Input
Amino acid sequence: MTRPVIIGLTGSIGMGKTTVAAMFEKAGVPVFDADAAVRAMQGPDGELLPAIESAFPGSTGPDGVDRDALGKIVFGDKEKLAKLEAIVHPAVGRKRAAFLDENAQAPIILFDIPLLFEGGGNKAVDVVVVVSAPAQVQRERVLARPGMTEEKFEHILGLQTPDAEKRAGADHIIDTGTSLEETKAQVQAIVEQLRSAMADNG
Output
C-alpha cells in the first residue's frame, strides 16, 4: 500500500506559517499542527500536566500549564528546556503517528512543525516547505504581538535555525511578503505539482 507524501512545513517566527498551513488545509491536504497538539496536551486536564508539574512544581493549575510561570523557569536554562522537551517531544511524536494512521489514505499530508530543522524532523518528511518573508516584515509582525519585546524576539531567533539556512534546506519556499492571493497561488502550485508527480509515478 502506498503511504501519503509527507510535507514538512516550517518557518521562523512571524513568517506566516499558520496562514500557509490553513491554505494547505483548504486545498484538501490534512494538516497536523504540532503546536496545537502541544497546547491541547498542556491545556485543562491535558495528559502532560502531571509530568510537567512533577518536573517543574508550580507551573500548572486548573487552566493547564501556566505558560508565563513555565517560561520563567525554562527561559535561558538549557538543561531545564531539555527536560521539558523530553516530556513534550515524545508525546507529540505519538500524536503525529496516530494522525498518520488516521490519514493513511490521503495522497498528501502536512506536518506543521515550527522546529523542523532544529529537531532533525526534516529527515523524516518527503518534501520540505519553508515559509519565509523579508526580515523587516518578520520583525514588524512579531513586535506587533501582545507582550512581545525586542529581547524576547532576539532570544527566539537565537533558538531557531536562521531563515537563510532553512531556505537552503527547502524543496519549496513560500514567500509571504506578498499578498494573500499570491501566497495562496504558491500553495496551490505546490499541491498540484505533488499530485501530478504522484500521478506520473502511480
Observations:
- The beta strands are 5-10, 31-33, 60-61, 64-65, 108-112, 127-132, 172-175.
- Residues 1-30+108-202 form a domain with the Rossmann fold fold (CATH 3.40.50.300).
- The chain has nine helices and seven strands.
